UniProtKB/TrEMBL annotation:
Statement: the UniProt record of this protein carries the keyword Nucleus: no
Protein name: TetR/AcrR family transcriptional regulator
Segment forming the signal sequence: none
Alphabetical UniProt keywords: DNA-binding
DNA-binding region: 8-27
Domain HTH tetR-type: 1-45
GO molecular function: DNA binding
Protein's UniProt keywords contain DNA-binding: yes
InterPro entries in alphabetical order: Homeodomain-like_sf, HTH_TetR, TetR_C_34
Length: 190
């Protein structure tokens, strides 16, 4: 409980059955290791979107939003990492490590946008905005839906405060579908 914010290198090595020095040989820090997992998450998400969109030429806005929700929510570690990458992880590594992360993330981002654009009649600006919204909302809503142990106890004591903490996927779906439909109304199609 509590997600990646509570991960330690010791816990990772114990779970993997390897010595800590083995991990340190490949990763300079916990942040470096978590950025590696985030990079892999971007690749997994890209691949899932490409697979879901392949051989489709008829995706409407709601379909595209649904694909984004279904694929990203199937990657819980990636969902958790998205907030931490932006808040802390990129700043806690050297510039070359941050550059590598950005290179991998942007390449995957661009590929998944391309896959959705090829499969739908949505304008490029609509798809880009929908993907950006997916990342931002996932990062935020995941943290709320998966509270720290302290907040989980607090929500047990004060249920009214945690009323929306458990409906991550339905809430994300509703917001993204509404966003996808609304984009056609407020953004030009070219």
């Amino acid at each position: 409980m509590g997600g990646v914010r509570f991960v330690t290198v010791a816990a990772v090595t114990d779970k993997a059955g390897i010595h800590r020095t083995g991990v340190r040989r490949y990763y300079a820090s916990k942040e470096d290791l978590l950025l590696e997992l985030a990079e892999r998450g971007w690749g997994q998400w890209r691949d899932a979107v490409k697979k879901a969109a392949e051989d489709r030429l008829d995706l409407g806005p709601v379909d595209a939003a649904t694909i984004l929700v279904e694929t990203i929510t199937s990657l819980p570690v990636f969902c958790d990492l998205l907030a931490h990458v932006a808040m802390r992880l990129e700043d806690d590594v050297g510039i070359e490590r941050a550059r590598r992360y950005k290179f991998v993330a942007f390449a995957a981002h661009d590929e998944l946008i391309g896959a959705l654009q090829r499969s739908s009649a949505m304008a490029p600006a609509h798809v880009e905005t929908l993907v950006t919204t997916t990342v931002a909302l996932t990062a935020s809503l995941w943290q709320t839906a998966n509270p720290s142990p302290t907040l989980a106890r607090l929500y047990e004591q004060e249920p009214d405060w945690g009323h929306y903490a458990l409906d991550f996927k339905p809430r994300l779906t509703l917001i993204l579908q509404a966003t996808a439909i609304g984009l056609a109304e407020v953004l030009p199609t070219t």
